[in-house]
Amino acid sequence: MKTDRSQLIQAAAARGKYAPLYCHLSSTTGSRWRATFVEVERILGFALPASARLYRPWWSNQNASGGHSHAFAWQAAGWKTEEVDLEAESLVFARADRKLVDAAKGGSTPTVAREFDLDSFWPPIPGGRRPPGFTVSREQIYDSSGRLTGGPQDDAGSER
């Protein structure tokens, strides 16, 4: 009997290093769960790696063809990450679109699920505050010909 990929992923998520997160999310009700990194660590029973605090891509959702064990944990449970805020050390887990979950499990894949969506793989975060006194205008960014200023074209005649 052939085991399909979704069964392998769910089995790996249920017994892997991030199994406590998989189990927690599998039993969580509601469509969103706002969590801090500390809360996730309490559930896991160990500290997140430094890369989880330094690099937003650590929290990215993976496509159905591959990924990391931590991403499998939330995705196999039917969740995705959103609003990752490294400064506040928080994120939102949201129920994944059922079509995308079904597609990852080898079900029929609607055309919509095949389109690349950057937000689903690298969730957006709200921008932080600008430094006091920070201003920017079109005139500061573009020259009179509509070209970006401050780039290599401006340095072409200067000595290095």
Q: How is the topology of this model organized?
A:
Elements: H1 5-15, H2 19-27, E1 32-36, H3 37-44, H4 50-54, H5 69-76, E2 79-85, E3 90-95, H6 98-104, H7 111-114, H8 118-121, H9 138-141, H10 152-155
Antiparallel strand pairs: 1-3, 2-3
Task: Describe it.
The chain has helices spanning 5-15, 19-27, 37-44, 50-54, 69-76, 98-104, 111-114, 118-121, 138-141, 152-155; strands at residues 32-36, 79-85, 90-95. It has 10 helices and 3 strands. 40% of the residues lie in helices and 11% in strands. The chain is elongated. Residues 99-105 and 107-116 have low confidence and may be disordered. A 3-stranded antiparallel β-sheet has the order 1-3-2. A hairpin with a 4-residue loop joins strand 2 and strand 3.
Task: Using the CA coordinates, give the radius of gyration.
Answer: 21 Å
Question: How many DSSP helices?
Answer: 10
Q: Which oligomeric state applies?
A: single chain
Q: Biggest sheet: strands side by side, in what order? A: 1-3-2
The dominant shape is: elongated
Q: Kindly report the average pLDDT value.
A: 76
How many beta-strand elements?
3
Strand content: 5-15%
Which structural category do the helix and sheet elements fall into? alpha+beta
Instruction: List segments where confidence is low: pLDDT < 50 over at least 5 consecutive residues.
Output: 99-105, 107-116
The topology string of helices and strands comes to HHEHHHEEHHHHH
Please outline the major beta sheet. Answer: 3 strands, antiparallel
How far from one another are the termini?
66 Å
Binned, the helix content reads 40-55%
